[in-house]
Design brief:
By secondary structure, the chain is an alpha/beta fold. The strands form two sheets. It has a five-stranded parallel beta sheet, sandwiched between helices. A two-stranded antiparallel sheet has the order 3-4. Helix 1 packs across helix 7 and helix 4 packs antiparallel against helix 5. Bound molecules: adenosine-5'-triphosphate and magnesium ion. The site of adenosine-5'-triphosphate has 16 residues, from helix 1, helix 4 and helix 7.
Length: 174
């Protein structure tokens, strides 16, 4: 079973995946897998991010086997996954997290805006994969791990898409 741990940068994918790995679960860092398998086909110089050949990477992911595997990466929802878990974060808090990473202002704004308009959730849902959301704003990485494991065990009701709405937060910006 493949489980995508996706979400806007800074929502806490790697933080929760580190916990899952510590607890003995198989976790694959998709950015690392992409560079190790020559799936990076270019660099978007404007946005300063790698361009990945998703079709090629999908084949590489399939070669990982059939056990429970968590995929860490902001394009993991585009792989052949059984379920896609999109981590979410209030844009104001996300901005603080990305500032702490010392990202430049333009990149922070782009990502905070993508979070505000549910970009990854929309992309994941439109790809047809079963998509759930976990709000990490007031959840520790530990609590996020609990939520992820709950979803994997089939208790996904409380994480259904449609409950997270940052439009009020955006209105405060203008
Ligand atoms: N649940 C959380 N609560 C508070 N802070 C968190 C939480 N999860 C992660 N953080 C902090 O937010 C920052 C970004 O987290 P992390 O690197 O896990 O995000 P990411 O989604 O993997 O981002 P990227 O796509 O850039 O790899 C880190 O400084 C981390 O310590
Ligand atoms: Mg990460």
């Amino acid at each position: 079973m493949f489980v995508a741990i996706s979400g806007t940068p800074g929502t806490g994918k790697t933080a929760v995946c580190e916990r899952l790995r510590d607890d003995g679960y198989q976790v694959v860092d998709l950015n690392k897998l992409a560079s190790e398998t020559d799936s990076v086909v270019g660099v978007d110089s404007e946005r300063n991010v790698d361009i990945v050949d998703a079709d090629l990477l999908r084949v590489k992911v399939r070669e990982l086997g059939n056990d429970l595997v968590f995929l860490d990466g902001h394009f993991s929802h585009l792989m052949d996954v059984d379920v896609s878990i999109v981590l979410r974060c209030n844009p104001d808090e996300l901005k603080r997290r990305l500032e702490a990473k010392e990202w430049d202002e333009k990149k922070i704004r782009e990502n905070v805006e993508a979070e505000a308009v549910d970009a990854i959730t929309v992309e994941s849902t439109e790809s047809g994969v079963d998509t759930l959301e976990v709000d990490t704003t007031n959840r520790s990485a530990e609590q996020t791990e609990e939520a992820v494991l709950k979803i994997v065990s089939g208790e996904s009701e409380e994480f259904k898409v449609g409950q997270i709405d940052w439009s009020e937060v955006i209105l405060d910006w203008y």
